[in-house]
Amino acid sequence: MKALVQSIRLIVFGIIDSLMLRHREALKGLGSQFVSERPRNLIVSFAIMRVLLIEFNVLSQIDNLFDITFCYFPITFKPPPGDVYGVTTDDLRDGLQSCLNATPLFGPLALPLLLEKLSASTGNLKRDTLQTLESCLPVYGRAVALNYAPELWESFKIEIFQPADPDTEGSALRATQSLIRTLYSLQDIPTSGEIQADGLIVDIVQECKKILREPEKSQAQHAIKLLSACICTTAPIRQYVLSQGAICVISGSTHMIGLSYRGHILAGLTGFIMAVNQAYKSGVVDDVEQPLDTFKDQIIGAFSSGINVASCRRAALEGLHQIVQIRRLVPIAELGLLVHIINEHLNPKEEDHDDLRPEALKVVLAISQITTKPVEEISLPHLFLFLPDITPSRNALREHATYRRALDSLATICVQPPLFETFVIRLCSKLDMLCSPMRQPLDDEADAAYAHAILLALKNVLVIKIRDAHTDIPKYLDQLALPLYWIFIRAAVSSAPPLASSDIRVVSLAAKIITLIARSLPLERALFAAYQSGTTTPLLAGRRLPGMQSHSPPFLWSLVEATNERQSLAMFHTISSIFNKRLEDAQPFLQTRLPEFWEESIASATVPIEARRRALLGYIWALLVRNDPRVNVCVNRLFSIFSDPQLGWHAAKAVGEFGRGGGDVLTKRNFSVIRMLHTQRFMTSTLPQIIAGCKISPDLTEHTTYLIALTSLINSVPKAMFLSELPTIMPFLLRGLDVPDEEMRANIINTLNAVAKDESSSQVNVISEHASTIVTALLRNADYEITKSSRLRATALQCLGMFPSIVKYSVLHPQRNHVISRLSKALDDPKRSVRKEAVDTRSHWFAYQG
Amino acid sequence: MPIPTATMDNPNPVIFSSKKDIRREVRSIWIDSSEEFIDAAEEGDNLPEVIDEDEIYDLLRSITDPEHPSTTLEQLGVVTAEQIKISGNHISVRFTPTVPHCGMATLIGLSLRVRLLRSLPARFRVDITVKEGSHQSESALNKQLNDKERVAAALENTTLLDVVNGCLATANLRGRDPIDAA
Fold first, then answer.
1. In its keyword annotation, does this UniProt entry include Nucleus (chain A) (predicted)?
2. Which candidate, A190, A52, A83, A77, places its Cα nearest to that of A128?
3. Could you read off the pLDDT of A572-612 as tens digits, one per residue?
4. The total number of structural domains that make up chain B
5. Structural domain that includes position A68
6. How much is the ipTM here?
7. Which member of A166, A456, A790 has the closest CB to residue B43?
8. Which residue, among B17, B29, B179, would best test binding to A if mutated, counting the most A CBs under 10 Å from its CB?
9. Predicted confidence (pLDDT) per residue in A718-759, tens digit
10. CB-CB: which of A207, A315, A509 is closest to B17?
11. Angle (nearest 5°) at CA B61 between B56 and B66
């Protein structure tokens, strides 16, 4: 074989492989004539070897076969950078493993060697050895495993009780599970009486019991993990471990005189129950088995009394959360009792409950998934009590915090359909009261904040219900969306609407809720809502809702009469959605009015700038319809005003709006008509134009305008669409990092972040090439004396923090110390969120070494 | 226990399960979690949020113990929020070794020192001490940890620096579970 060039050898192996596949029987007669070192060849030869070992009579050659296989263990191969063959370490490792676990005949030969490797290796190699053992032991069988069980256990024990890292610990636990399964695979479940066991599992349990006498110590946690791993093996083992371990722990909780360790004991118990849950989830527990039945009462007793002791409340709640999830274990009546007990720790007035409130709510939520009745009868009335009819004044922050806690808690537990229904009814009537035009509020703003909090709670539950694909959402078109419309439209047409129904924050939250509901409607019902608009944002238009029949009056209204930008934007969104769905009706407007409109209201320099800006926005949204040839005409018009000193930048930013294609307004979820690939087509036609503009525009302002167009465009499309152009674009982006406009710099840094995050992409090299320039620019952007937006500073720091992992040390090492010293300024940033990024980034740079 | 623990000062330390979540006061009657409004309200204001005890605790809690690489100083009760005090530009951090003969106390103190050197603005003066009566060579230890020259000298030693960096590797988790963070 060595006589041949390696590529030829690959072919030879391929031939053998296919012979193996098709003419296995003929080859069996050949005997022992069969067996490169190139990774890709190895992969093929491993595959051949596996077939050989499984299908052929290899007994006489087993020593040789073992030698030529095991000599590759452990795999230390690392693919060279830019490896064209694409063979990974894992491929080889899996290949080798599939040979080693191909035949039980390897058992007596492999185990002593693997044991040796286990004690001699560290890190990856140790994990590899443990994983190999895990996969091989069941194949090698009980007899061989029994011979080596004590040694294997001694080696595993070190990794379990003195873990170097979580990965190795996990591998050792899985290897132990595999060993136990192999040793006890033949045992049946004892039908009655004492559970008998012998051998290794007895040693393990005894040792753990000894350790568990000191439940507060770190070793006890490892012991719990080990016993939990045993629980996830087979039914008899599970019974044995639970009867021994759980009894030991429970007796600890009752015999212990002091209370100081009770939390630890309960935590240990929780560990066991989690393991049982895990066993259920992974399907190793069958329907007949009820592993915890015998201990149920003791365990629930321990937890429910634990709740009353501050030091072990967390552990008790976590335990309850686990135990209520076990199928058919806790009877419904007892669940009611638990809800009662937990209720006492859900008082929204108590700030002290905040730490454990999430844990307590988790238990109630878990119970509500089994039965909603106790939650509806006990938790809900208790929490609704804390939603006041009279809003506290704006200075009473504590009172505001109280109802917010109540709303938060309700929003966490009212996910199940019957609970959500009650929740919606109660909150809607509160909202109706707050927003009533007849109301004489004591404090207008406090009322609005209260309404906002109520809507936020509603929205949060809806988001969760949508995530979990609940089917009861559509009925809330009548029960929630329409009442909301009613509340806000009633306010809009009244002469002096209360702030609670006209504050922009409140109204847009209501709009969002309606959108969420509309999106989940089945298509036929959606038609009604969809006609209104994509996002039903007309609510935002607030004061007046013009008729929808003719398209130009609302358009003009939003330009002339809308009192603020949000109102006109909402109207533009509405118009855009209508055009999107009823294009034929819009044709006359689009064909005749719009070009005139461009000349009159946008291109004309005599119109006041504010009006021109708004007109431009309207123009764009009107044309954002679909993949229409007019879009290109429109973009060309935009290019034509790039040199306009007043409107140029706005036009440039508008290009990005086209890239986004209507963002969250014109989307499939809103039942808009979306053409396939229209963004791609738009990109291919527009990007080259902009790049050309960046290159040739002589005048600095116009050049900057093109830069803005470029950044807003690429920030609005998925990065795959411009990745191939990155080398060309990069120099322009870098120039853009010095432009005063912060929004634009944020766009560029977001783009850099997106490119840098994908380490596998070949375009990371482009960042490497410009690394030093980018680093300097990012440092400037992170400076709180230069950059006003805290979010921009934080993103700049985040981006800077990625450099150590994507750029080779040799490239940036001259700058390392400079970066570290410049970052010390960011450590003193006025904003906490920025400081956090600065600390993380700086520590990455400290760790950046050759 | 036939586990090779003879070389360790405290092979089986007590674990504290108390997880302190950092909470900050309610500042407005409006809930600011709705994405859109956060920009307007917060982005540009630059109202200073001063560095407080909780922020320092957050920096330190997830440093690991040199002897137990999978256990954090928070879990071991070595650092607690109550043992950190700030007045003006002066910070005092006190820590409690798990056993009075703990040979790792210097290393733990050094890790705390390095973490704060790297994460706090230079205007702060930091004192790091062991809790009174918690260590047999308390005064020597305190002297060592607060002597600039000796700290600098210790960090010249690359082996020592590697160990410190190892302890700091998880510090950015700030109390989160490594599995949740991933």
1. yes
2. A77
3. 777 777 777 666 666 777 777 777 777 777 777 777 777 77
4. 1
5. 6-183
6. 0.92
7. A790
8. B29
9. 888 888 888 888 988 888 888 888 888 998 998 888 888 876
10. A315
11. 125
